[in-house]
Write a structure and sequence with these properties.
27% of the residues lie in helices and 16% in strands. The protein is of the alpha+beta class.
Length: 212
């Protein structure tokens, strides 16, 4: 059987940490029969700065052996309320991921698996890959939920929050903040992606790992 990896980006939502700070995140879905993935169907949510992190890590880990596809260009005037800009970004992010998952070299990178199949923040993905957590990459993937989950060895979170400007250094969603999500109406754009595979909501799963 020929391996198939279907990945999609859709369902942009505005996440509000407080009255002044907001950003957009996107549903990232995966449906595959590839041996590179032990979990064949998954759904997570990621924001643009996390895509920037992923590309930087993949480029560094591949030691320039492969030329990575570009991300959608940064736009200093990007607006949370501009449906056209959001739709264009979604298409660019999807194209980026579709090209990434075609490379066996990149498919062997733990950063890609944590990005696609866990809800860990950037700092925790870095710590997990470096072996500085009490849980492995495989455990993080298997315990993926649609919300950030907490571990006893969580690293301190950066309390500074930023709006959804195109910043490489902005941290991921703060797991300790309650966020309010509102769906964005982008008529006729996300539905035209034409990605095969059925989305399945990840079940509510509580995970806790003790010290090893």
């Amino acid at each position: 059987m020929q391996p198939v990896i279907s990945v999609w980006v859709r369902d942009p939502r505005i996440q509000k940490n407080d009255f002044w700070h907001a950003y957009i995140d996107y549903e990232i879905g995966l449906h595959t029969n590839s041996v590179f993935f032990t979990k064949k169907i998954s759904i997570v949510r990621r924001r643009f700065s996390e895509f920037v992190w992923l590309r930087q890590r993949l480029q560094a880990n591949s030691m320039l052996m492969i030329s990575l596809p570009p991300l959608p260009p940064k736009n200093p005037f990007f607006s949370l309320n501009n449906a056209k800009q959001i739709a264009e970004r979604i298409q660019g992010l999807q194209k980026f991921l579709e090209q990434i998952v075609q490379s066996p070299l990149l498919l062997s990178d733990s950063c890609l698996h944590l990005f696609l199949q866990s809800q860990l923040s950037i700092s925790k993905m870095d710590a997990c890959v470096a072996g500085r957590t009490h849980f492995s990459v495989a455990q993080a993937v298997q315990c993926c939920t649609l919300r950030r989950f907490h571990f006893e060895d969580d690293l301190p979170n950066d309390s500074s929050l930023s709006c959804d400007c195109d910043s490489d250094s902005s941290e991921s969603r703060d797991p300790d903040s309650e966020t309010k999500a509102s769906a964005l109406d982008i008529t006729g754009n996300t539905g035209s992606l034409g990605v095969s595979g059925t989305s399945q909501e990840a079940g509510s799963l509580c995970c806790s790992f003790g010290s090893t």
